[in-house]
Amino acid sequence: MEKATFGAGCFWGVEDFFRQVPGVAEAVSGYAGGASQAPTYKQVCNGDTNHAEVVEVTFDPAKVPYATLVDLFFKMHNPTTLNSQGPDFGTQYRSVIFTHGEEQARVARERLEAAKVSSRWKQPIVTQIEPAPTFWKAEDYHQRYFEKHGGHCHVSYAEVANS
Ligand code: MHO
Prior knowledge:
Number of helices: 6
Helix content: 25-40%
Oligomer: single chain
Bound molecules: S-oxymethionine
Strand content: 15-25%
Shape: globular
Number of strands: 8
Largest sheet: 6 strands, mixed
Strand order of the largest sheet: 7-6-1-3-2-8
Radius of gyration: 14 Å
């Protein structure tokens, strides 16, 4: 099993999406990339910790290669909106790939270039690629949020898989 970490807006939707992907064993909502230790949702929402809402994905690379996860990441959100995603605004909603190791960093950069030339997006892609910092798991009530409450804020895996 390998880990991958993605920030693509509200983590409820990102977690829900990656949980549907065959080969993904676990998806956990959390915070990463900010200054403080063990941040709370409230602190992250206020925007003064600079953490991003992210999802830590545990996957079997024999079933779903990392490159496929990165391609799905680019398809499941809008990577051209700086510090915002859909209805949500703030640096916590930034588009970011936190890479685990040199090989992931290489693949992420390569798939970013592929997304740039895909003509899928009219505006420039603003996704950041950075080495994974400490991941702070979010409060329990944020885990499997849409499973418990319904709703969505990203396209579904089924829509992306069939496109
Ligand atoms: N617009 C969303 C953001 C939630 S998310 C976990 C809401 O507050 O309902 O950042």
